[in-house]
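so my prof wants the structure for this chain in the tokens format not the other one, which i didnt know existed until like an hour ago. anyway here's the sequence
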Amino acid sequence: MDRHRSRISSLGAALILMGLSGCSVPSGAGVSAHSMHVESVKLDPRTSTPVILLEEESGARRRLPIWIGVYEAQSIAMGMEKIESPRPNSHDLMRNLVETINGRLARVVITELKEGVYYAVLELELNGRTLTVDSRPSDAIALAIRTGTRVYATEEVLRSGSFSQEGGKALDIEWPGPHRTREELAPRSY
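here's what i got, hopefully its the right format
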């Protein structure tokens, strides 16, 4: 009985995950892309908007800035610092769902930059199949950090959105802890 219930709940979790995420099954997984690492989360001093900075792991070591929301920046910073929230946030929930259905996040790919908006996909392995799930880059990166999964960017995205030299002045977002308000975020200068 418990094994049957477990299979049903795993199937239900998979259907919920696929249904909520705009999943296309199966994927044309294996898009050619460059491995990136999350360098930092910064605050753009011109717009006061958080920016996640990805850096190419080899080659030209191009840097890719992606402007994100405050909530996503906080979640990414918490993941990078290994700070556990007293209750799961959305990104913790996504990780828990993937683990519950015995899936694995294989990789995250930043796939395109269209009219100033970045697009990404999650490549999930489930029951011997690879599923591609549409995602905002910030959510995909927050999930990748929580699962230890590599982040990639296509050559097209790097050509159009990256830079090689040191950028202008930016501020680090200092994560004060899970019980602070947005106003209590204290940016500090580099």
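also thought this was worth mentioning. The mean pLDDT is 79.
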